[in-house]
Amino acid sequence: MNKYDKFFHNFCKENYEQIFKYILVMIHYKSTAEDIVQEVFLIAYEKKKILFSYENKRAFLYKVSKNLTNEYIRKNQKCKTVELNENNVVDEEDLCDLIYHKEDEKIDEQKYIDDVINELSKDKKELYKLYYIDKIPMKNIAKELNLNEATLRMRFVRLRKDIKNKVKNIKFQNI
Q1: At a CB cut-off of 8 Å and minimum separation 6, what does 22 contact?
Q2: CATH number of 92-173
Q3: What is the CATH class of 3-79?
Q4: Is this model's pTM higher than 0.70 or not?
Q5: Where's the RNA polymerase sigma-70 region domain (predicted)?
């Protein structure tokens, strides 16, 4: 065994555990970390003569470890596959409706429904009836009223705001 092999053998013994832990913290998979550590020390072995004269030999190992780990992470991020279940795919309009319904659940409309509805304009009453009572999706309401969906969504935003304000006013009047 020559001086370079002896150096490398001792160098591996001294640093293997720390390099392994360093990589494991970034990867979280023991078998993958072991593979990367092997690659790191293979590169170090191939460059053992140059490494022998390095001032900070451990820095070399950490730098190679970081580079190989980052390369592994980049490759795996590109290769990730997402399994789609047809039952879980939601139409964008359905998602909007779902969000709007969640927001609307915050309004305690049952408590003040008659007072609030009576205060709405004719157009707003119609929108309220179609969407909240008849449960017609916004997409269909837009077609029925010959409106752009974005315009209709904005009208519902205003309707909800109007209803919230009316509920607040009625609530304060009853206090």
Answers
A1: 62, 65
A2: 1.10.10
A3: mainly alpha
A4: no
A5: 14-78
